[in-house]
Write a structure and sequence with these properties.
Helix 7 crosses helix 9 and helix 7 crosses helix 11. The protein has 324 residues and is an alpha/beta fold. A 7-stranded parallel beta sheet has the order 3-2-1-4-5-6-11, with helices on both faces. It is 42% helix and 18% strand.
C-alpha cells in the first residue's frame, strides 16, 4: 500500500517523503510546484526524491478533484499526509483568493478524494498555530478558544479543521490535524525568518525586526516535526467521530532577537537591525502545549534552537554556493 503526500515539493512535505522512503514506504507525491517562492528550490527537492524506487511524483493541483482522482486512482493508497497549502500570514493580506483556492477548495477536494478510498486508514493534515489568533493565554492548548483568527490564513486553517471534523462525523474517515508551530530547518521556506535573516547577513543587508525583536515564536526543527507526523500517522484515531487535533511544536518560545544572535554566531557576521511596527495579522507570541501529542503519540522534540539554526545555516551556505 502507498502513502499519498500532498505538497511533496514543499518544505515539510519533502522531508516527510524522504523519511517515509527511508523506512521503506511506497510514496506518491503530489505538487503543482507553484511560484509562491523559488520553483528552483522546489524542483531540487523533487529531484532528490525521484531516484528512490518507492517514489512516484505527480505534478498536479490537489484542489482539482477530477485531476486528483485521475492521477491517483487505483494506486493502492491507504494513508494520506495532506501538507499542500497556500502558506504565509502576511501574503494572505494581499492575495486572499489564493487561500480560498488552496486551503478551502483544496482541503475539501482532499476530503472528497479520501471519502472515495475504501482502503483509507488515516488522513493526517496540516493546520497551524495561527488558529489561536490573538490569544494571550500561554502556552496555547488544544482546548483554548480559536474562533477569532487575526489573518485570513488562520481562518482558512480553522475552516479546514471544521471540515475535517464534519467528514469524520459523516463518513467515519479517521483524521488527525496538526497545528504546526514555526517550522524551520534545511531546505526551508525562503519567506520565513530563519531564511530571510540568514540571507540578509550573507548579502550584507539589514534585518527588519518587528516590535524591536520582542516577538516570541516556538521555533520547531523540521526533523522533530517529521518524527511527530509519522508517529501520528501510525496511530489513527477511532470512535464514532475519529478526528483529533494536536499542537506540534518545540514547547519553548524564543525571542526573535535570540534567533538573530544564533544566526550571527553561525554565520560569523553582525546584523544591522531596522525596527518596524508589528504587521497586520501577526501575533506577539506562540507557544505550544504539547501535553496531548506527547501523551498519545510519544512526541518529544529534541533539537533546541542553538543546534537547529547552525544546521540550517550550513545547508544554506552550500545551497548558496551551488546557485553561485
Amino acid at each position: 500500500m502507498s502513502v499519498l503526500v500532498t505538497g511533496a515539493a514543499g518544505f515539510i512535505g519533502y522531508h516527510v517523503c524522504k523519511t517515509l522512503l527511508a523506512r521503506g514506504e511506497q510514496v506518491i507525491g503530489i505538487d503543482n510546484v507553484n511560484s509562491y517562492y523559488s520553483t528552483t528550490l522546489k524542483e531540487s527537492r523533487v529531484a532528490e526524491l525521484k531516484p528512490h524506487r518507492g517514489f512516484t511524483f505527480i505534478r498536479q493541483d490537489f484542489a482539482n478533484l477530477d485531476g486528483m482522482r485521475a492521477a491517483v486512482g487505483g494506486s493502492g493508497i491507504d494513508r494520506i499526509v495532506h501538507l499542500g497549502a497556500q502558506p504565509g500570514v502576511r501574503y494572505s493580506i494581499d492575495h486572499p483568493m489564493a487561500y480560498a483556492a488552496a486551503n478551502l477548495t483544496g482541503h475539501l477536494a482532499v476530503l472528497e478524494l479520501a471519502r472515495g478510498i475504501k482502503s483509507l486508514r488515516h488522513l493526517v493534515y496540516a493546520s497551524s498555530s495561527s488558529v489561536y489568533g490573538g490569544n494571550t493565554k500561554l502556552p496555547f492548548s488544544e482546548t483554548d478558544p480559536v474562533e477569532h483568527p487575526v489573518s485570513l490564513y488562520a481562518a482558512t486553517k480553522r475552516a479546514d479543521e471544521l471540515m475535517s471534523d464534519t467528514y469524520a462525523h459523516l463518513y467515519g474517515i479517521p483524521q488527525t490535524g496538526l497545528r504546526f508551530f514555526t517550522v524551520y530547518g534545511p531546505s526551508g521556506r525562503p519567506d520565513m525568518a530563519v531564511w530571510l535573516f540568514t540571507e540578509a547577513l550573507f548579502e550584507g543587508r539589514p534585518i527588519r525586526l518587528f516590535e524591536n525583536g520582542s516577538l516570541q515564536r516556538d521555533f520547531t526543527y523540521v526533523d522533530d516535526i517529521v518524527a511527530g507526523v509519522l508517529a501520528v500517522l501510525d496511530g489513527p484515531p477511532s470512535g464514532e467521530r475519529p478526528h483529533r487535533l494536536y499542537n506540534i511544536g518545540n514547547n519553548k518560545p524564543e525571542r526573535v532577537t535570540r534567533l538573530v544572535e544564533i544566526i550571527e554566531q553561525a554565520t560569523g557576521r553582525k546584523a544591522e537591525i531596522i525596527s518596524e511596527p508589528m504587521q497586520p495579522g501577526d501575533v506577539p507570541a506562540t507557544y505550544a502545549d504539547i501535553t496531548a501529542i506527547r501523551r498519545d503519540h510519544g512526541f518529544e522534540p529534541t533539537t533546541p534552537l542553538e543546534q537547529g539554526v547552525p544546521k540550517f545555516v550550513d545547508w544554506y551556505r552550500n545551497w548558496r554556493g551551488q546557485r553561485a
